[in-house]
Amino acid sequence: MSKPLLLVLGDQLSFSLTTLQDAPANAVVALCEVAEEARYVPHHIHKIGLFLAAMRHFAQSLREKGFQVHYSALDDADNCHSIIEEAERIAQQYGCDEIRVARPGEWRLWETMQQRENSTTPWRLLEDERFFTTPDDFTQWSSGRKQLRLEYFYREQRKRTGLLMEGNEPVGGKWNFDHDNRQPIKAALDFPELPQHHQDALTQEALSDAKRHFSDHMGSLANFNLPVTRRQALVDLKHFMQHGLAQFGCYQDAISDSAPYLYHSRLSAAMNIGLLSPHEVCAAAEQRYYDGDVPINAVEGFIRQILGWREYVRGLYWTQMPSYKSANQLGFERNLPTFYWDADTDMRCLQRAIQMTIDNSYAHHIQRLMVTGNFALLCGVKPEALCDWYLAVYADASEWVELPNTLGMVLHADGGLMGSKPYCASGKYIDKMSDHCQHCRYSPKQVTGPKACPFNSLYWHFLETNAERLNKNPRMKLIYGSLNRMTDEKREAIRQQAEHFLDQLETSPGYGQLCHTAGYANTTSDTNTIDTDKEPQ
């Protein structure tokens, strides 16, 4: 009789996982804490703490359900600290004749596992069926299409699942209510406070181990409040449905100088590691609409990010890798600005977005796209540098969701495969959507001069520098018309302003040395149009 080792990865903490289905009575379930996975980029300590605590709780739940579990902890003397080697060591220890594992969240692991299928202890790779679609489903949908646009994919997802559908027609008479979801920040808004999760002994021990092993990583665990059990994740889900969803739609693009979460759900980390399923999250939101508690624009916008965008970027990732990761169609070569690691900048919007990231391992999708992402785009930051940063600093960042969002949407480095145009904007957009500019030394109304917002000159400089690649894009026609109507004198002044700023911009050569620098701030502190291509929350 076959005796398998069932390897459960840190982002597969679901009892519905294919690996755990129909498990024979003699199967051994393995969960492995390995330093290699925590250090290949310098992951935020909240992210590491989340994985350690959630994995230990899940192992406990597996034992309570009768599974035989082997748990490799960081401090175990015989831990190989490589997920592949550790799994094979455990399989040999228990006399297992194969290793079963569901598709991981990163191509590098998937490729290595495929290469081990004929090893002494063969690997059997299974599909991860916890999503609405599989990579094969996405391949079938994309076959023969010249453009892989979200809107078309999303509509088919709605029809296939029946979410927010009345027969063959969308509820509310429209597929997309994004036009109603662009209201800027307002002083009178009152944002809900998040539930505070109790930290039991298992969680406290996990956080203590994270601090002991990874104290040189970004962040402080003093304010750690991520859900590490399914019960805690369900509390967050219920809280968002009752207190956040109704206002989420209108204000999902708004940016606050003081509030990191606004009306956002903060459920993506729990979904991405398996504590919540996308199916139950979408169903809960849909029910709030049918109960008459939440308007259609809020529910549709929220479901679109999960059923549409989340599935779409995953499909792109698995059908375009591994070549996708090396794409750099705009030829960017600049290293990451150093202040991305310590928030030491006098640009208020960037300082706040990065400080919130340092504090919480979180920034909402417009902060990522139109503040840190937009700035990196305008400065020409090379894709690998920005992708590594996003992967490192956000608790919800797995490569399958982070890479397409960063490389494709933020940097337009895939040549328009994802987005039909770059998401570039001047300081006027940030001034419109946020309350940052009133606290900033720079003026969004000035393009040149000592008080001019750097985003303004960088915006026009980016357009001019990349004109040969972008000026034939029909969605860029109007803005290039404005550039072409500028006088030579004005264009030269803008060029000099931008180039002087870029010459003074301090950058870091890479993430490898960043865990050993002294720059981390472990403190807790307090009119372009965005269309439907948005990063999920």
TrEMBL record:
UniProt protein name: Cryptochrome/photolyase family protein
Classification of source organism: Bacteria, Pseudomonadati, Pseudomonadota, Gammaproteobacteria, Oceanospirillales
SUPFAM superfamilies noted in UniProt: Cryptochrome/photolyase FAD-binding domain
Cross-referenced Gene3D superfamilies: 1.25.40.80, Deoxyribodipyrimidine photolyase-related, DNA Cyclobutane Dipyrimidine Photolyase, subunit A, domain 3, HUPs
Record-linked Pfam families: DPRP
